[in-house]
Amino acid sequence: MTDTQNQTGKMRREAGVIGLLYASLGGIIGSGWLLGPMHAAEAAGPLSIFSWIIGGGAILLLAMVYAELATLFPRSGAMVHFPHLSHGSLLARIWSWILFLGYVTVAPAEVMAVLNYANSLPVSWMPALVHLSKLHVHVLTPLGMVVAIVMLGGFSVLNLFGIRWAMRISNTAGWWKLGIPALTVATLLLSVRHTHNLHIHSAALGGYFRGMFTAIATSGVVFSYLGFRQAVALAGETSNPHRNIPIAVVGSVLIGMVLYVGLQMAFLLAVNPAALHQYGWAKLESVASFGVGTGPFAALARAIGLTWLAWVLYIDSIVSPGGTGFIYAVTSSRVIQAMGEDGFVHSSMKKLNRAGVPWAAGLLSFAVGILFMLPFPSWKKMVGYISAVMLLSYGIGPIVLLTLRRIMPEDKYKRPFRLPGAGLLAPITFAVSNVIVYWAGLTKVSILLALLLAAFAGFVLYRVFTRPRSLRELPWRNTWWVLPYLAGIWILDFLGSRSMVGGCGILRFPYDVLAMVVFSLAILYLAIHCAIPMEEVEHYIETQEI
Question: Where are the domains of the chain?
Answer without folding.
Answer: 17-405
